[in-house]
Amino acid sequence: MPPVVKVEPVPGPDSAPQALSFRIHLWLHLVTALLLFGAAWLLTARPELAIHWHTLGKPLVTAALIVVLLPAFHRRRRFSRFSAGLCVSISSFLLLVAAAETGFRLAGFDFRRQEAFLRRVPPCYQKPRVPTGEVFFRHPGPLTWTGQVLKAQLAALRLSTEPYRNEPVVTIHYNRFGFRDADDLSAWDLAVAGDSFTELGYLPDSELFTTILGQRLHRRVLNLGVASTGPLTYLSYLKDYGLCPQLRQTLVVFYEGNDMEDLRREYAALKKFQATGQRPSMEIHKQTSFLRALGERLRRTDPTTPTGLPVDAYFLSAHGKVPVSLEPPPRARADQPAAALQALAYFAKEYAAFARQHGIHPWLAYMPCKMRIWYGHLEFTARATDVIKHWQPADLPTVVAGECARNGIGFIDLTPALRDALDHSGDLLYNTIYDTHLSARGSAVVADALARALSPQAASR
Length: 461
What we know:
The protein is an alpha/beta fold and 461 residues long. It folds into two domains: 90 residues, no CATH class; 346 residues, SGNH hydrolase (Rossmann fold, 3-Layer(aba) Sandwich). The strands form four sheets. It has a five-stranded parallel beta sheet, sandwiched between helices. The protein has a three-stranded antiparallel beta sheet with strand order 9-8-11, with no helix packed on it. It has a two-stranded antiparallel sheet with strand order 1-2. A hairpin with a 3-residue loop joins β1 and β2. α1 crosses α4 and α8 runs parallel beside α17. The longest helix is centred in the N-terminal third of the chain and has 31 residues. It is elongated. The termini are far apart.
């Protein structure tokens, strides 16, 4: 029997291309898996994207793991072609989205069109952006705005404008420093500083409580009210814009709805500035993220259709139920952060020192939120939070009054006057829907209460 000769297979001409094809196939899947992992990380690690896309994190990671395992079935040609095509499609889509995200960011395209949006928003609803003092801000000026303020704000937010359909058209003027005062006002007897409750940027000049107060007292009153500010900003305004030789009294209007939180925030910014020299910025930052814009659009059903109004309760008036909006109520002393109480003590001490330095009498008026005045007259809706439903008038007025007493600051609680006016007339005294501030009638009640407190002789007028 002839010997058996073992013949080794000779590599065919297709072996090298097959090996190269497998390597390409393997790298295609690995690259696709890395892109999926990267997308999962980006959509969950970046807060501005995670709020819209965090639910895609686990599915993307799972898809990446599956793609990594697919090359194990490369010998099945039909399946191999399918998986390669799938990887090309996934990679192309992810790269296209990445290119769009990068391109829009580099181009600085603002998806929110914030500058155009701010042109539609009345000044009193815009945050102050002009730096002043150490870490504070004010409105730009001079500025004049004409229109239906509350209606315009609801329209800008795509809310129904029905509650303020018949709101009068007003012209609101701000002087060169961004305050609601006449350009030629150069001397005053009383300077009043506060937030939006003092600015009242939807009321004409004649209905501001500072204007009415000046008429009651026969004095010149300066209005240093600016929305979205707190007590340390008020004090900065008094120092930089409120002094004149004729000044005899200053009044800070403390709004219980958010001034404790504003104090905490401002005090932290001030301490940081004193330690580092760094001050905060209020520059407008464009929203340049394509993915964030897409997520915001998907969360809205129809951005052109006005949405429902935020009705938290019904005010039980003598003429029926009136739908109203409510803001988060003020905290009691026991629930206040220690930093906020520390900031309150710091403010009172600095305010008193400022008054002594310039020989003026300092006052503080405690402005209650609408919930304190409407307490006991509300029927809550399902939309109202438990915090709102179970809130009861607490001791924050006493806390603020105590700091004033310790530092020789006159204290005026506006709650009794507003509550009495509500009980006697039935007027709500605050705007009903969305807006938290005083109505024209409420502004007049505040003016009368301040006049009685600042000048006892005015009580008979």
